[in-house]
Amino acid sequence: MPSACNKDYADNMGKGVSVLSKENNKKITIKDVAKEAGVSISTVSNALNNVNVLHPDTKERVLEVARRLNYTPNLNGRNLKAQATGVLGLFLGAIRGPYYGELSDAVNRACQEGGYELEIFLSSDPSHILANIMGHRVDGAIILNSAIGPEQEQILKNQGIPTVYIDRILVGERSSSVVFDSHSGGEQAAKFLLELGHKKFMYIEGVSDNYDSIERKKGFFEVLKRAGITVDKDYILKGEFERVNAYNAVRDFLESGKPLPDAVFAANDLSAIGVLEAFRDGGVKVPEQVSVMGCDDIETTRLVSPSCTTIRTFFEKQGIIAVEQLIRMIKGDPGELITLNGRIIPRDSTIAKD
Question: What is the pTM of this model?
Answer without folding.
Answer: 0.74
